C-alpha cells in the first residue's frame, strides 16, 4: 500500500488561481452522469503562470477547453487524483471540462443515488468526485447549475440559490437552472433530484422580506415534517433576535434522505438524514424531537457561520463548527431549560471529548496535521470548539460577545478566514487583552486545575489557590498554562449567595462592578501555572461554588469536603453546580465501591448519598428534568476515565448495585413519581411536558432494576398503556435491562408493532445492540441477519455497531469476543464506506487503558486490520495513531 501523505497546517499556501464564476451543467442518466463545468479562472498574481492543479477522483475526462479551444494531451497531465494544466495562459481565462461520473458510489461523497433519488455531499472533499476543481474552501465563486433529467422519474430538480428557469425538453426530459448570488466554497454546492414532495411555509424576515420555506421528503413522510418546520422558523427568528443575522435569499430548502451521514448546510439546500427531520409523537421520542430542533438550528445557523464567512482551510474547521455548535446549544437553551441543556452538553463533552483528549487520538481544536480531514469531524473540533466560543462569551458578557460577532461578520462577510480572525474580532470589538487565549486552539488535552481554599478568621479573608497542568498528548509533551475563566460565587452558611465586590489577584485589587446591582457570580481569570485570589471582609467561612455553568472545559479538583458538596447540592443558586456537586459525590462513591469490588469486599451505599438523592427527588420547587438528571449516576466511561487501569466489569457491577440499592431504598418515592407524572392528553413538545416524562421514565428505569413481580407488572403496564414513543420506548428499555422472557416478549411485541417504520426499527436495533446483558455479542450477530438490517444504510449500521461499542462490558468482554466481532466488521465496512469504518475502528483507540489480557486482544485486532489489503486512508490513519 502506498503510504498516505500527511498534510500540515504550517504548509498552507494561498492558491495561485482563484475561480470567479462556476457554471455547472448536469445531465443525469441511469448509468452515468455527464457534468460540464465552465469556470472563469483568475490568477492571484498577474503574469505568474504556475501550473493549475485540479483535484478529481473517479472521473472520466471527456474534453477540456481553454478559452474555447480544445486542449491537446501534451498540455495537461492526468492521474488518479488530479488534472494538471501544465502551463495555463497568463491572465484570466475560461476553463471548460466535460466529465463522466459513474453512478455506482457507496461512499456518500460526491454525487450518489439514495433510495432512487440523486443527492450530493461535498464536504469536506467530495466535490472532486463531481468535476475537476480546486477542491479547497478558500476558492469561493458564484455558481449556476443547469440540471437535466427524465421528468417522470425525477420530477424535482434542486440546487443552491434561486430557480431562474425551468422547462420541458424532448424525450420526456425536463430542466431547471439555479443561480446562487452568493460566493461560496465548493463544499457547499448541492444538487438533489428525484421524486419528492414538500411541506411549504413562509418566514418574514425582520426587514420584511418573505422567504419561502420547503421541506422535501417522500410523500408518505410529509406529515412528519411539522416539527422540523417549527424548528426552522424558530431558528430563523432566534438568529435575528440574538445575533442580528437575517436570512439572505428568498428560498430555503431542506431535503430528507434516508441514508445520509448526519446533516449538511449546503447553501439554501440543507440535506438531512431522516432521523434528524421526521417526527411524530407516536414514532419519535423527546430526545429525537430535541435533536431535530438542535440540528435544524445548527444547519440553518451555518448560513452565517460557515457559509457567508467560511474557513480558509480544513484545519480551521472549528471556526465554523465550534461556533455553530455553540449557537445551536444556545438556541436550544433559550427554547427549553438552560440548566438542563448545559448539563446534557457537559455530559456529552465529558463522555466523548475528554476521553478522546486523554488518548492517542487527542488533537487540538485546530489540528496541526491530518491524513484524512474526514477523521477530524470530532468532538474536539465540534464540542470543545463550542466551549472555546463559550469562554469568549463568559469573559466578555452578552453585549461584548455580540459586539465581537458583529465585527466578525462585518469584517469577513464573503471571505474564507481563520480562527485568529475570530479571536481578533472578539478582541478588537472589546478592546481587551486576551493574554494566551489562543492556546485553546493549539494545545490538546484537558487542563487539570487544582483549587485549595482557606479562610482566615482573624483577617476575615478567603483565599483560593489555583494550580493548573495540561497533560501531554501525542506530539505535545510540554504545555504552557492556559487562560481559564472560572465563574464562581460564595455561599454563606444559610446557603445564600454572598454579594461580591472585589478580590485581590497576585496582590492587586480587582473590583467587581455591575452598576448599582449586587454581583453574586464573578469570573476569575486564571492564566498562570499557580495563582491566588483573595476575598476580603467576609464575616464567616464561605463555601465556594466554582466553575459555575461549567465556564471552562477543564477537570477541576477542589478540596471541597463531602459535607461542602452535599451543601452545594442542596443550596447552590447555580443549577449546573448543584447537579455537579451530586455528580462529584456519585463519582467518589462509585470509585470507592469499585475498589471494594476489586478487593472482593462487600458493596455498600452511603446513607447520606441516598438522603441527598431523596431530598432532590422530593423538592417540588425544582424543575422535573433537572431532578431526572440529578438522580442519574455518572456514565460508566466517566468512572473508568478516573481509574489507573479501566475495569469495565467492576464499574458495571458497581453501577448496577447502586441503582438497585437506590431503587430498594426509595421504592415508594419512585413509584409516586411514576404515578404523578404519567402522560395525559395530547403529546406536547415543550419543556414542562418533556420534564414530566423525563422524571417519570427515569424513576421507572430504577424500579425496573428490582426483582419484584409487582414492579415488573408496573413497568409492563407503562409499556402497554403508553400513548407516545417517549413513554413506550423508555418502558421497553426499562424492561430490556434484565434478560428473560419478559424482555424477549416485549422486544418481539415492539418489533411487530413497528416493523413498517424504519426509524423506529433502528431504535429497536440500537436498544438491543447497546445492551449490557451478558454475552450480548451473540444476539448482535443474529441482528445482522435480521431482515431489517442493511449494511449499506448508515443509520442501521450505526444503530448496531455504534450501539454495541457503547456497551463497555460487551465490547470489552474479557474473552475478546467483542473485539473480534468489531474488528472483522470494520474490514467488511471499509470496502463500502471508509468514513463509517474509521468511526467504528476508533472504538479501539484507547486499548492501552485496559488490563494486559484486553490490551493483547485489542491490539491483535488493530494489527489484523492494519495488515489487510486495500485499507482506506481513513481507517489507516486511525489504526496507525492507535497503535503508536
Ligand atoms: N458540516 C456538517 C457536517 C458534515 C460533514 C461531512 C458530511 O458528510 C461526509 C456530512 C456532514 C455539519 O456540521 O453539520
Ligand atoms: Zn456543522
From TrEMBL:
In this chain the Aminopeptidase N-like N-terminal domain maps to 24-188
Catalytic activity as recorded in UniProt? Release of an N-terminal amino acid, preferentially alanine, from a wide range of peptides, amides and arylamides
Taxonomic lineage from the root: Eukaryota, Viridiplantae, Streptophyta, Embryophyta, Tracheophyta
Q: Where is the Peptidase M1 membrane alanine aminopeptidase domain?
A: 229-437
The entry assigns this protein to a family as follows:
Belongs to the peptidase M1 family.
Please give the name of this protein: Puromycin-sensitive aminopeptidase
Q: Which residues form the Peptidase M1 alanyl aminopeptidase C-terminal domain?
A: 563-883
Give the organism, scientific name: Lactuca saligna
What's one GO BP annotation on this UniProt entry? Answer: proteolysis
Superkingdom per UniProt: Eukaryota
What are the protein's GO molecular function terms? alanyl aminopeptidase activity; metallopeptidase activity; zinc ion binding
Keyword entries, A-Z: Aminopeptidase, Hydrolase, Metal-binding, Metalloprotease, Protease, Zinc
- Transmembrane spans: none
**Where does the Peptidase M1 alanyl aminopeptidase Ig-like fold domain start and stop, copy by copy?**
445-558
Q: Which top class of enzyme applies to this chain?
A: hydrolase
- Enumerate the NCBIfam families for this protein: pepN_proteo
Give the matching Pfam families.
DUF3458 (PF11940), DUF3458_C (PF17432), Peptidase_M1 (PF01433), Peptidase_M1_N (PF17900)
Does Hydrolase appear among the keywords? yes
The record, for InterPro entries, names: Aminopeptidase_N-like_N, Aminopeptidase_N-like_N_sf, PepN_Ig-like_sf, Peptidase_M1, Peptidase_M1_dom, Peptidase_M1_pepN, Peptidase_M1_pepN_C, Peptidase_M1_pepN_C_sf
Record keyword Nuclease present: no
> What GO cellular component entries does it have?
chloroplast
Q: What is its EC number?
A: 3.4.11.14
Cofactor(s) for this UniProt protein = Zn(2+)
Amino acid at each position: 500500500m502506498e503510504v498516505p501523505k500527511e498534510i500540515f497546517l504550517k504548509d498552507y499556501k494561498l492558491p495561485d488561481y482563484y475561480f470567479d464564476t462556476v457554471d455547472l451543467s448536469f445531465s443525469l442518466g441511469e448509468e452515468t452522469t455527464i457534468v460540464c463545468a465552465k469556470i472563469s479562472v483568475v490568477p492571484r498574481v498577474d503574469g505568474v503562470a504556475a501550473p493549475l492543479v485540479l483535484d478529481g477522483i473517479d472521473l472520466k475526462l471527456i474534453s477540456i477547453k481553454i478559452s474555447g479551444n480544445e486542449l491537446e494531451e501534451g498540455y495537461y497531465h492526468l492521474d488518479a487524483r488530479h488534472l494538471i494544466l501544465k502551463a495555463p495562459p497568463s491572465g484570466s481565462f475560461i476553463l471548460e471540462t466535460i466529465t463522466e461520473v459513474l453512478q455506482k458510489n457507496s461512499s456518500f461523497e460526491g454525487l450518489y443515488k439514495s433510495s432512487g433519488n440523486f443527492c450530493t455531499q461535498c464536504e469536506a472533499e467530495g466535490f472532486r468526485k463531481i468535476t475537476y476543481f480546486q477542491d479547497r474552501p478558500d476558492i469561493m465563486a458564484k455558481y449556476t447549475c443547469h440540471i437535466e433529467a427524465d421528468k417522470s422519474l425525477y420530477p424535482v430538480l434542486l440546487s443552491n440559490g434561486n430557480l431562474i428557469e425551468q422547462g420541458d425538453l424532448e424525450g420526456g426530459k425536463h430542466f431547471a437552472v439555479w443561480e446562487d448570488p452568493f460566493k461560496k466554497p465548493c463544499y457547499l454546492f448541492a444538487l438533489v433530484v428525484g421524486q419528492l414532495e414538500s411541506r411549504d411555509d413562509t418566514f418574514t424576515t425582520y426587514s420584511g422580506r418573505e422567504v419561502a420555506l420547503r421541506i422535501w421528503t417522500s410523500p408518505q413522510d410529509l406529515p412528519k415534517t411539522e416539527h422540523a418546520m417549527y424548528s426552522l422558523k424558530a431558528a430563523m427568528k432566534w438568529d435575528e433576535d440574538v445575533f442580528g443575522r437575517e436570512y439572505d435569499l428568498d428560498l430555503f430548502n431542506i431535503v430528507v434522505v434516508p441514508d445520509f451521514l448526519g446533516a449538511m448546510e449546503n447553501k439554501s439546500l440543507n440535506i438531512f438524514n431522516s432521523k434528524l427531520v421526521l417526527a411524530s409523537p407516536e414514532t419519535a421520542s423527546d430526545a429525537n424531537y430535541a435533536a431535530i430542533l438542535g440540528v435544524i438550528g445548527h444547519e440553518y445557523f451555518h448560513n452565517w457561520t460557515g457559509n457567508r464567512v467560511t474557513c480558509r482551510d480544513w484545519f480551521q474547521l472549528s471556526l465554523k463548527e465550534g461556533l455553530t455548535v455553540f449557537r445551536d446549544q444556545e438556541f436550544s437553551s433559550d427554547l427549553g431549560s438552560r440548566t438542563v441543556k448545559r448539563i446534557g452538553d457537559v455530559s456529552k463533552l465529558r463522555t466523548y471529548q475528554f476521553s478522546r483528549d486523554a488518548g492517542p487520538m487527542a488533537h487540538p481544536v485546530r489540528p496541526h496535521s491530518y491524513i484524512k480531514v474526514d477523521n477530524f469531524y470530532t468532538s474536539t473540533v465540534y464540542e470543545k470548539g463550542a466551549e472555546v466560543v463559550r469562554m469568549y462569551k463568559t469573559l466578555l458578557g452578552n453585549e461584548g460577545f455580540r459586539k465581537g460577532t458583529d465585527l466578525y461578520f462585518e469584517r469577513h462577510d464573503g471571505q474564507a478566514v481563520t480562527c485568529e480572525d475570530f479571536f481578533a474580532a472578539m478582541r478588537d470589538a472589546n478592546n481587551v487583552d486576551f493574554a494566551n487565549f489562543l492556546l485553546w486552539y493549539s494545545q490538546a488535552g484537558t487542563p487539570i486545575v487544582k483549587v485549595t481554599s482557606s479562610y482566615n478568621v482573624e483577617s476575615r479573608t478567603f483565599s483560593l489557590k489555583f494550580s493548573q497542568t495540561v497533560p501531554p498528548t501525542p506530539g505535545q509533551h510540554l504545555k504552557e498554562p492556559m487562560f481559564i475563566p472560572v465563574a464562581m460565587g460564595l455561599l454563606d452558611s444559610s446557603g445564600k449567595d454572598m454579594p461580591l465586590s472585589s478580590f485581590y489577584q497576585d496582590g492587586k485589587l480587582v473590583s467587581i462592578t455591575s452598576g448599582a446591582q449586587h454581583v453574586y457570580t464573578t469570573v476569575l481569570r486564571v492564566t498562570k501555572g499557580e495563582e491566588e485570589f483573595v476575598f476580603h471582609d467576609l464575616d464567616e467561612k464561605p463555601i465556594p461554588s466554582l466553575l459555575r455553568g461549567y465556564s471552562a472545559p477543564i477537570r477541576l479538583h477542589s478540596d471541597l469536603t463531602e459535607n461542602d458538596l452535599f451543601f452545594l447540592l442542596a443550596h447552590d443558586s447555580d443549577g449546573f453546580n448543584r447537579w455537579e456537586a451530586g455528580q462529584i459525590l456519585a463519582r467518589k462513591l462509585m470509585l470507592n465501591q469499585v475498589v471494594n469490588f476489586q478487593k472482593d469486599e462487600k458493596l455498600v451505599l452511603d446513607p447520606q448519598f441516598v438522603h441527598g438523592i431523596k431530598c432532590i427527588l422530593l423538592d417540588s420547587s425544582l424543575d422535573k428534568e433537572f431532578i431526572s438528571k440529578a438522580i442519574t449516576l455518572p456514565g460508566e466511561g466517566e468512572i473508568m476515565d478516573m481509574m489507573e487501569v479501566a475495569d469495565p466489569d467492576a464499574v458495571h457491577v458497581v453501577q448496577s448495585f447502586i441503582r438497585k440499592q437506590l431503587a430498594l431504598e426509595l421504592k415508594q418515592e419512585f413509584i409516586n413519581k411514576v404515578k404523578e407524572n404519567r402522560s395525559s392528553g395530547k403529546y406536547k413538545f415543550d419543556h414542562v411536558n418533556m420534564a414530566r416524562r423525563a422524571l417519570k421514565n427515569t424513576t421507572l428505569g430504577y424500579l425496573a432494576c428490582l426483582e419484584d413481580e409487582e414492579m415488573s407488572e408496573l413497568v409492563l403496564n407503562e409499556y402497554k398503556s403508553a400513548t407516545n414513543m417517549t413513554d413506550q420506548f423508555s418502558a421497553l428499555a426499562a424492561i430490556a435491562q434484565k434478560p428473560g422472557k419478559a424482555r424477549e416478549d416485549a422486544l418481539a411485541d415492539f418489533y411487530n408493532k413497528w416493523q413498517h417504520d424504519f426509524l423506529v426499527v433502528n431504535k429497536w436495533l440500537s436498544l438491543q445492540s447497546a445492551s449490557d446483558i451478558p454475552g450480548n455479542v451473540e444476539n448482535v450477530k443474529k441482528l445482522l441477519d435480521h431482515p431489517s438490517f442493511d449494511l449499506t444504510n448508515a443509520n442501521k449500521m450505526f444503530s448496531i455497531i455504534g450501539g454495541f461499542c457503547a456497551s463497555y462490558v460487551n465490547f470489552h468482554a474479557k474473552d475478546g469476543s467483542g473485539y473480534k466481532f468489531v474488528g472483522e466488521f470494520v474490514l467488511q465496512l471499509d470496502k463500502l464506506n471508509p468514513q463509517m469504518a474509521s468511526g467504528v475502528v476508533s472504538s479501539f483507540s484507547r486499548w492501552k487503558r485496559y488490563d494486559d489480557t484486553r490490551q493483547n486482544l485489542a491490539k491483535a485486532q488493530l494489527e489484523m486490520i492494519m495488515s489487510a489489503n486495500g485499507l482506506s486512508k481513513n481507517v489507516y490513519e486511525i489504526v496507525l495513531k492507535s497503535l503508536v
